[in-house]
Amino acid sequence: MAEKSGNRWLIAIMGTVLQITLGTIYAWSFFQNPLIDNSKEIAGVTEITANIETAKATLLTSQEALQSAETALQDALSLNQASAANLETVKADAGKKPTKAKLEMITAAESQLAASETAMTEANTIKANAETAVKTAEETITTEEAKLTEANKKVWNNSQVAWILSFSICFLGIGAMIGGFILPKFGPRKLAVTGAVLYGLGWILGGIALGGDNPSLPFLYIGLGVIGGIGLGLGYVTPVATAAKWFPDKKGFITGMVVMGFGLGALFMSKVFAPVIMDMFTTDGVTDFQTAFIVIGLVLGIPGIIAGLTFQNPPAGYVPEGYTPPAATASSNAQGNLTVKESIMSGPFWKIWFFFFCNITAGIMFIGFQSPLLQDLLKKQDGSLDKVALAASGATLIAISSLFNGIGRFFWGGLSDKIGRAQAFRLILGTQLVVFLLLMVVSSPIIFSILVCYILLCYGGGFGTAPSFVMTVFGPKVMAVVYGTLLTAWSMGGLVGPQIAAYFKDSNPATAANNTFLAGAVFLLAGLIVAFMTNNKEYGKN
To answer: N or C: where does the chain have the smaller number of CB atoms within 10 Å of the terminal CB?
Structure first.
């Protein structure tokens, strides 16, 4: 039965709002360097490093003073020897024929000798003091360097901080899979609200983990990574599956629009939420991450809950006004008889899963490290840039690239309606492969940023195309569960991508960028090969 569109556009819009709140996780690179710097402050690395630099400056000054004292002592010794020789000469001359003048010369020579001895004593004292100062400075440097070695063991590295994003994306995929299975039972409203609550709670627990003088990285993993990640998954799959049911006439367009919100989330986080909230809780250059993360959790959780409360499934037999469903075919009838197990165990599903995983893995390397990679290029170009300027440039790239991430979901989703889902993925993977290879020879921060934006356009395009791909191949009956299961590719990509980039950055920073680009190109090539083995045919059990 045909019905007016009514509230279906409201559901689509609120689904986009929910996705924006969830997509803020994609701005994680904004927090990557600040959290590492914060761990250095807490471990005392900054203070110890300053002490070492002060001791080295003192050592240099003391060494210069010692060198001057040794020169003065040598001069005093030479003067003493000359004075003693002169005194002996004067005495010998006066002994032959003493006169008043010669006696006065003896007195003067004795005074000169006494003065040289005094100079020797003073020079020896200065030398001894300088030697003591040198020894003290050397001992201080040795002691502080030992302290620095111990303190550095407590500092978080790139890989450790990147695990927060990796766990978030990993459990997003797991949460999406679970959500796909339980969505028919609990309905979209309960799942969406639960997802928003858990994601906001994840940030709050993350803030608690960052409190005190001994922040807990494992608790941060559990809070924002596991609990927040599950919330991401439940909240992500629900509006996509629900909107697809309301818009059978615009499957690619509407799912692209909804997931576009997830891509835009990083824009709001990197240019609005994070800078404003972090600035509010920063005093004398020291940020209260505990309070900042708790406030971020509330700011993201509340609108997500409000958006989730509007979700509902269309009535049975719903058909949008003016839309005529395509006539049933043998393949569509076969689709209707498909079970979830048959769909998930099929060859088409795993082909889609694989090239979806490859696209995610390549793109998420940049989502987690685009800001540090850009900052490295900027430092090479202009070494005078300070941390504030570098961080601002990184945040700007996150914001702009997130726009392309969001637009890509919308653009590629709509384009796939016209050229086909498999064809869209071939373009996404193939063009990115060229871009990744180009990145290996790019040294300009501007060109780097442009290419990153294109990568994020294609990264988002994968998410804009995948839901309608699943709907096309497997049909609406199993769409929610199959699509939720497909998002486990996101889980794996979230584990693999950031850790590859972090490993290269920690192990050899000088070659980290090129190694990352080459690894991404390998994944894209593998995905492209499989994409050419895939088609848009409806899958049905023979």
So the answer is: C
Tell me the pTM: 0.74
What sections of 312-444 are H helices per DSSP?
330-336, 340-344, 347-381, 387-419, 421-439
Q: What is the 3-state secondary structure (H, E, C) of 307-323?
A: HHCCCCCCCCCCEECCC
Which residues, including other chains, have CB under 8 Å from residue 145's CB and lie 6 or more apart? 52
- What would you report as the CA-atom Rg of the chain, rounded to the nearest whole angstrom? 35
Per-residue pLDDT of 311-366, as tens digits, reads 998 888 888 877 777 665 555 545 556 788 888 899 899 999 999 999 999 988 87
Query: What does the alpha-carbon distance between residue 304 and residue 200 come to, in Å, rounded to a whole number?
Result: 9
- Is the distance from CB of 180 to CB of 239 less than 8 angstroms? no
Question: 242 CB contacts (<8 Å, ≥6 apart)?
Answer: 11, 15, 188, 311, 312, 313
Backbone angles phi, psi at 81, to 5 degrees: -65, -40
On whether the CB atoms of residues 468 and 422 are closer than 8 A, the answer is no
Find all residues with CB under 8 Å of 502, minimum gap 6, and list them: 157, 158, 159, 161, 162, 368, 369
Specify whether the CB–CB gap between 62 and 130 falls below 8 A.
yes
Q: pLDDT for 34-87, tens place per residue? A: 899 889 888 888 889 999 999 999 989 888 888 888 888 788 788 778 777 777
